[in-house]
Write a structure and sequence with these properties.
By secondary structure, this protein is an alpha+beta fold. The chain folds into two domains: about 20-145, Jelly Rolls, CATH 2.60.120; about 150-294, Jelly Rolls, CATH 2.60.120. Helix content is about 35%, strand content about 30%. It is built from eight helices and 16 strands. The strands form four sheets. The chain has a four-stranded antiparallel beta sheet. It has a four-stranded antiparallel beta sheet with strand order 2-7-4-5, with helices on one face. Strands 9-16-11-14 form a four-stranded antiparallel beta sheet. A hairpin with a 2-residue loop joins strand 4 and strand 5 (about 75-80). Helix 3 crosses helix 4. The longest helix has about 35 residues, at about 260-294.
Length: about 290
């Protein structure tokens, strides 16, 4: 049951919630005045992946589990405990939640309404920076955990990736790279949003062949990293897109050092090349049929 108190909640402070340490006293008082205490039983969904959330959550007690869907499978990507917050990425990017959050045991939470969180983000550069760093790190950790290539790396290596991460954002309609581009310094991992993979139609330059639509946890650019050839397709953001950039040099080093990573990388490349070849064969067969019909 949700309850609300008119007295500011004094246990919402920087000692318990370190991310609030960047707030000035009046900003912290503002947060406290709108906080709604909530008690939840075990095994209850607080956030469902894909939904637009209405609150930033602060954990007072209990443990919650984070699960993410990818390619028809569900992955447990982490847990969150007292003193942490969650729901920040959906609020920050005005996007659907990227994972499920469910109570493992009875929990006490504080809910901060989304309007008040955004007011503080808009007026506090320090809070915006802290929330952005948290959201980016969590999104990247989740994508690395569900991706079939990078999930094979030891946890310590994935932590290094997060530490050295470069992030990139594209607006809907923007192109990450074009077919034939020779810059293969990076491969990419999608943190949020969707992208379209396409190639110019071999017989009609005004048309394109769409090979795939990718989403959170999917990799981009690995074929050129392996072949050292220009990109064979164009990647376009179909929604606002957030990515992590991973250097070619690092990928090559991990491929040589970790056999499981190398095998997974080659399997992914082979699968995508086969998929592309079959798509082109379908186009060719359709064209031949059209000529015969004439």
């Amino acid at each position: 049951m949700d309850t609300h108190t008119e007295e500011p909640l004094q246990d919402i402070d920087a000692k318990i919630y370190p991310i609030l340490a960047v707030l000035f006293p009046d900003e912290l008082h503002f947060f406290r005045s709108f906080a709604i205490p909530v008690e939840m039983a075990a095994n209850v969904a607080v956030i469902t992946e894909g939904q637009y959330i209405q609150y930033l959550y602060l954990i007072k007690s209990g443990v919650l589990q984070v699960n993410k869907r990818h390619n028809d499978s569900i992955f447990e990507i982490g847990s969150i405990t007292p003193g942490e917050v969650f729901g920040e990425a959906s609020i920050l990017y005005n996007a659907p939640a990227g994972a499920d959050v469910r109570t493992v045991e009875p929990c006490e939470l504080y809910q901060i309404p989304i309007e008040q969180v955004r007011d503080t983000l808009n007026t506090s550069e320090r809070f915006m920076r802290s929330i952005t760093q948290l959201a980016e790190r969590r999104s990247a950790a989740g994508a690395l955990a569900v991706n079939p290539i990078f999930s094979t790396l030891p946890q310590a290596v994935r932590e290094v990736i997060l530490y050295n991460a470069q992030f990139l954002s594209l607006k809907a309609g923007k192109v990450l790279f074009h077919e034939g581009d020779a810059d293969t310094r990076f491969m990419y991992l999608i943190l949020g949003g969707e992208a379209e993979i396409s190639m110019q139609h071999p017989q009609n330059p005004n048309k394109k062949i769409i090979f795939a639509r990718l989403t959170s946890g999917d990799e981009i650019g690995e074929i050129s990293v392996i072949t050292q050839k220009p990109h064979a397709a164009t990647v376009t953001a179909t929604t606002p897109l957030r990515l992590i950039m991973i250097s070619n040099e690092s990928v090559q080093a991990w491929r040589e050092r970790y056999s499981d990573f190398g095998h997974a990388l080659y399997a992914c490349v082979q699968h995508k090349l086969n998929h592309s070849l079959n798509s082109l064969r379908d186009i060719n067969n359709d064209s031949k049929g059209a000529i015969i019909d004439k």
